[in-house]
């Protein structure tokens, strides 16, 4: 009988999906509820989001697909193009975040169903209620998904595409259906270059572990991947031939520093700073046990091995110094899957106390991570906990007459756009907005300073020289210190970068 060409999932996976549909709905309700309670969706943007939201002003429409890789970004342009299209369609930023949250939720749902399917395959029976409850909690409270799942960036899109790749390949009913996973892999390559490590994991799994090479299937598979991944291939060629130096902005943090940063950020949800790293250590230990337990030495083609290879190839990115754990959102559901399988095994083996203790530990760490999203004195990323509402209210309350705002923080400049339209205020990120520094006379000058990627001895001296010229003979009339990082001294010792305990300093001169 000829294989059908639509993405038919295997009967046992379809049965697992029907059986656990209620579990998935419970998980999604938990995930969305916790995300909203943690301040996601209806919030201030972060620096990379601002880039995504404003790049369309320079590269509108199809021009972005061709010109952006040649001049500016180091990522394939598909996400920026989609966001720009959303903006042209009139979608509010909060609506875009809801779409991102939905993408992340769907990725979690697919991996949760994969988990239930794998449990049934391994045990010969459907998952029992303790395992089902554990899955709902671990997926619904997934720390990195809660903190980054609503981002107007490429992470949610990439996470969904990788979830589709894994599901369509592992749980497909036939080879024709598996070809749809090639489209997901290709689109992932047009979203981010981390599709490269995923593709490497796929190659090892299919050709080494499964030993499943078939000329006709594989030729079509990689052709489809290349077609859908053409934007990624184009961007990669441009970077390698014309803008090789731009790659250094993403790398070069050192192997040890990158590995430790990625571990803390991944398991701490990109919210727990070094002062709370002790909370992450036991979670990493449990994860290590789950990874070791997932290795099946008798069945090289076990589907779980594909996920283990994805983790391994992602870990290789620490070698050139890649230290951006939020980029690994796509692996967070895979880790939840491995943890659930491990705890289910403990329960099946009668180790109920150990399984309960580990479950409590994992849930407690996840809840702590969610509680620290957006408001922590031990932040993983300092800019993520700046009280922007307080800063903006202070600026607006203390401005008088025509006002110049110079900020080392891009979020403040972005949020003051509405004030600029009145013509009584001009805001500049550093001194980049040349229109603010012509012959205009200002009654008030507001300086907003904090550590930035541009910070450094030479640049800081130049910046301060510009500041003194702008201030002139004005006197400081008001000041505010916003945001608190109690790990600043420890971070300074670890990195050698001088950081103050207060994240932003605001000064008003008239």
Q: Which tags fit this structure?
A:
59% helix, five-stranded mixed beta sheet, 2 domains, 6% strand, alpha/beta, 510 residues
Summarize the structure.
This protein has 23 helices and five strands. The chain is an alpha/beta fold and 510 residues long.
Structural write-up:
The chain is an alpha/beta fold. The protein is 59% helix and 6% strand. It folds into two domains: 13-371, no CATH class; 386-509, no CATH class. Helix 2 (21-37) runs antiparallel to helix 6, helix 6 (93-123) packs antiparallel against helix 7 (129-140) and helix 10 packs parallel to helix 12 (215-228). The N and C termini lie far apart (83 Å). Residues 1-6 have low confidence and may be disordered.
> How many structural domains does the protein architecture include?
2
What sequence of helices (H) and strands (E) makes up the elements? HHHHHHHHHHHHHHHHHHHEHHEEHEHE
State the share of residues found in helices, binned by percent: 55-70%
Overall body shape = globular
Helix and strand layout, with pairings?
Blueprint: H1 11-19, H2 21-37, H3 47-54, H4 63-71, H5 78-89, H6 93-123, H7 129-140, H8 143-148, H9 155-170, H10 175-191, H11 195-209, H12 215-228, H13 230-241, H14 255-267, H15 280-294, H16 304-315, H17 332-348, H18 352-371, H19 388-398, E1 403-407, H20 410-415, H21 417-420, E2 425-429, E3 444-449, H22 457-471, E4 476-484, H23 488-495, E5 502-509
Parallel strand pairs: 1-2, 1-3
Antiparallel strand pairs: 3-5, 4-5
């Amino acid at each position: 009988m000829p294989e059908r060409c639509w993405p038919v999932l295997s009967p046992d996976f379809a049965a697992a999906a029907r059986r656990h549909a209620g579990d998935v709905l419970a998980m999604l309700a938990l995930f969305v509820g916790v995300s909203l309670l943690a301040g996601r969706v209806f919030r201030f943007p972060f620096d990379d989001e601002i880039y995504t939201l404003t790049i369309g002003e320079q590269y509108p429409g199809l021009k972005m697909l061709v010109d952006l890789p040649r001049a500016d970004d180091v990522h394939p342009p598909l996400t920026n193009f989609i966001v720009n299209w959303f903006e042209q369609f009139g979608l509010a930023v909060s609506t875009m975040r809801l779409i991102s949250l939905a993408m992340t939720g769907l990725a979690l749902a697919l991996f949760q169903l994969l988990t239930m399917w794998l449990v049934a395959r391994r045990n010969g029976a459907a998952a029992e209620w303790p395992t089902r409850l554990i899955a709902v909690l671990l997926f619904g409270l997934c720390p990195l998904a809660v903190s980054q799942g609503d981002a107007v960036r490429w992470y949610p899109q990439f996470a969904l595409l990788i979830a589709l790749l894994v599901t369509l390949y592992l749980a497909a009913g036939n080879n024709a259906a598996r070809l749809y996973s090639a489209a997901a892999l290709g689109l992932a390559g047009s979203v981010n270059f981390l599709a490269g490590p995923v593709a490497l994991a796929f190659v090892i799994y299919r050709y080494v572990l499964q030993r499943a090479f078939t000329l006709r299937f594989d030729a079509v598979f990689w052709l489809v991947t290349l077609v859908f991944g053409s934007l990624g291939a184009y961007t990669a060629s441009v970077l390698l031939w014309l803008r090789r130096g731009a790659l250094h902005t993403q790398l070069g943090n050192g192997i040890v520093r990158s590995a430790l940063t990625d571990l803390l950020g991944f398991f701490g949800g990109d919210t727990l700073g070094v002062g709370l790293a002790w909370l992450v250590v036991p979670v990493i230990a449990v994860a290590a046990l789950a990874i070791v337990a997932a290795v099946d030495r008798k069945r090289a083609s076990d589907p779980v091995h594909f996920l283990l290879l994805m983790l391994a190839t992602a870990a290789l990115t620490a070698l050139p110094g890649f230290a951006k754990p939020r980029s690994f959102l796509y692996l967070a559901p895979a880790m939840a899957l491995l943890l659930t399988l491990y705890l289910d095994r403990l329960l099946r083996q009668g180790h109920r106390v150990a399984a309960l203790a580990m479950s409590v530990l994992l849930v407690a760490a996840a809840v702590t991570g969610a509680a620290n999203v957006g408001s922590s004195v031990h932040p993983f990323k300092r800019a993520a906990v700046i009280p922007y509402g307080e800063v903006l209210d202070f600026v607006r309350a203390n401005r008088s007459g025509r006002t110049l705002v110079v900020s080392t923080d891009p979020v403040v400049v972005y949020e003051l756009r509405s004030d600029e339209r009145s013509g009584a205020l001009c805001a500049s990120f550093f001194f980049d907005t040349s229109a603010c520094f012509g012959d205009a006379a200002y009654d008030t000058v507001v300086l907003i300073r904090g550590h930035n990627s541009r910070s450094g001895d030479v640049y800081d001296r130049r910046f301060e020289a510009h500041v003194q010229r702008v201030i002139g003979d004005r006197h400081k009339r008001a000041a505010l210190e916003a945001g608190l990082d109690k790990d600043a001294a420890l971070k300074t010792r670890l990195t050698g970068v001088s950081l103050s305990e207060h994240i932003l300093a605001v000064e008003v001169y008239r």
